[in-house]
## 1
Amino acid sequence: MHTSHEQPVYTLRQLVLYFARLGSLGFGGPVALAGYMHRDLVDVRKWITDADYKEGLALAQLAPGPLAAQLAIYLGYVHYRIVGATLVGLAFVLPSFLMVVALGWAYVRFGGLTWMQAVFYGVGAAVIGIMAISAQKLTAKNIRTDKLLWAIFLVLAAVTVITESEMAWLFLAAGVLVWFWRAPPKWVRQGRINAIVAAPAPAVSGMLSAADWPLLSQLGMFFAKAGAFVFGSGLAIVPFLYGGVVTEHHWLNDKQFVDAVAVAMITPGPVVITVGFIGYLVAGLPGACVAAAGTFLPCYLFTILPAPYFKKYGKLPAILAFVDGVTAAAIGAIAGAVIVLARRSIVDVPTALLAVAAVVLLLRFKKLSEPAIVLGAALVGLAIYPLLHH
């Protein structure tokens, strides 16, 4: 693997402290967090070379799992290998995990109180607006004018809206379709495709729900599957989680799920940390720990295992085509999830206005941060909710 040959100009302790601080204060979602890492570590401190950073970003986009966390793990790997990757990953994820567990405790303890319902009444609606803008940005950046990717996007959006769940095998099928279309393997070009026996996609979720295991085992398996099959930004995990947590297992209701997404928006660090909040609501602190470990362990392994080989094979046309197909499917699922969740969160005129206001503000003021919008929506909720539900 290509890394800088000279000795690192920073200690492992300095790098770990940097990521602990970023995990504590870094708002704005995965793209913003990746931007902070480039600014601080490449441009300002010059700890990481631009080439190493770009390799890490490409690997994070290629592998399933939360982008910002994988990029952080890779940057820890560059000079300090597995020890660096492990400590950086923990430092980055732990602060926001502790915050969502504290919020989970408060939600369970005081969830019946009007002020908390009022906050989530406003925030839940604003989150729909934020997710809509994120879906639009991802679509513009990744799909552009490619007709095949648009077809995949529209199919996945429709499937997500109709079934209110996400099918991991469709992501993989989309990747294979684009791979075969753009860079077909030799045996396809030679007309031997009929020699391949199409195996039906395994109904993993069906087998898991049928098994009568303790709740924590079920939680661990479900969140490991989520971490292993979800590509792209942190929001990509939302439709997948909705399908399993609400529709399939009935661990949470619609309102609790939207509140969990809102918690991810109002806390710093990776958006995916919403799994800790969901785990806490389902099975307390052990549930939060199992959900977070299940989600982040695959992304950790998907980063450190291929790291030595990525420089060699990451630019192959087949791999790039596969990634484009999976990304288009993931963005389609996000767009579908916005519609599914909007039906739950936008319950009256004020919530509809809040969602529209969030969209308008984000389009009008490019530098306006998402946490600022969430805070404003919380204050509006506190003001309006008691008047409507007295």
## 2
Amino acid sequence: MKFIVANNDSIIKNFRRVMRIFLIILFIGKSVNCFGADSVHVVRQNETLSQIANKYGVSMSAIQVLNNISNPNLLFAGKKLKIPIGSTKEIDYTVKKGDSLGSIANRFKIKLSILASRNKISRPDLIKIGQKLIIPLDDTKKVETNLLSSSTLKSLSSIRPKTGKWKKIIVHHSATPTDDAVNMHNVHKARGMKNGLAYHFVISNGSRKAYDGEVYIGNRWKSQLDGGHVKKQNLNKTCIGICLIGNFELRAPTAKQMNSLEGLCEYLMRRCSISKSQITTHKIIHPGHTACPGKYFSISKLLNRLNP
């Protein structure tokens, strides 16, 4: 009887040991299934979705869909984001109110015909809210970040830049803590500038009538006119002028201003075939003549944020 009891104890102990090993393996397996496909990134102060996407070599749109982010400008420090890792070529998307197949294709930077073909859609105008779509992605390249508002993008898309005219982008500051594009237009016109506002674009810091990060498209861009933002007229003929409201000798531009500047530069680079190396500042163009856009504006940090 003693031998049998001892043998039973051994069996029970061995059984418990096997079960523990089994449970550990099961837990590890579940952990891999839950977390193996995605990584988790904690957003840092002033970090943009563009920078995060570039860091992991994935598309910004894929991160937006995976984390249900409708506005990439509304990130906050400490937010945990799931990052798709691996060779994912497609993601799922649910059609929302206000979506069209064209707007979805534009958001993910793919051709409408490819999106329609992949989802076997013969009538692109007949998609429905709640409809499931498969979005083909190209993970072999970094996708341009959509940091501009839909209304700004719509306005920009209605303007056709003159082919071959624009060679550089020059960044300025207003050197005033508060201002707005309309007031600047009036001031410049009073100074004798026939076309008023010297810049093609103005990005607000939230002072006066505009919201922080709002992009004002000047008539010089709408009508494809030469700028009036630098001393040399030959540069005004080929350089796009972007002015950020604020005095950056005293403080840095706001995070929203930098997001809009990044988005606008990305758009202009793509639309006008301008390389990142051709984005500069007023001070670099005219050394010793001006401090614009101030010591608290870093051109190197802007360039690091842009796609090649």
